[in-house]
Amino acid sequence: xxxxxxxxxxxxxxxxxxxxxxxxxxxxxxxxxxxxxxxxxxxxxxxxxxxxxxxxxxxxxxxxxxxxxxxxxxxxxxxxxxxxxxxxxxxxxxxxxxxxxxxxxxxxxxxxxxxxxxxxxxxxxxxxxxxxxxxxxxxxxxxxxxxxxxxxxxxxxxxxxxxxxxxxxxxxxxxxxxxxxxxxxxxxxxxxxxxxxxxxxxx
Length: 203
Prior knowledge:
The chain is built from eight helices and seven strands. The chain is of the alpha/beta class. It has a seven-stranded mixed sheet with strand order 4-3-2-1-5-6-7, with helices on both faces. The model has no long low-confidence stretch (mean pLDDT 90).
């Protein structure tokens, strides 16, 4: 995974609560087996009409939010089904983080395992960011090393995060990466405990 240390980027406001994973990536697009290619279907039912015509009023299709890499959303973001594709779609679209006052647990866990940061701030802080993000060109800095979100206009807020999750994100470690940190110990164990001949499947 790509390490997440300090990220600065444009902000897009999604002023909706209870955004579920079927809204993030509808079920009809879950046929791919790789993690890429889902970004084009992100929030599909909100971005496109019944005949596939783009809805230019949707926030992510407004020109001044083009290239935004930080999404600010209402509470209970990522609720609904446990589909990991929701995180893949957000990341493939170009987002590096979502800021909300609360997240569904499974969505937050899937995010951490994919190097995608979920930032929890208070409802009042979210309201402030929504107002700021209405301005063209608004940017935020998310500093995972300091567990802080800040802008150039005086906004500054600390956010909580599990220390193990923080360690993995800072170092770009997924489950495989964590295991490979012990590669030498695994190799040593296997050398000292060879498989019985009957179980050795090497040709």
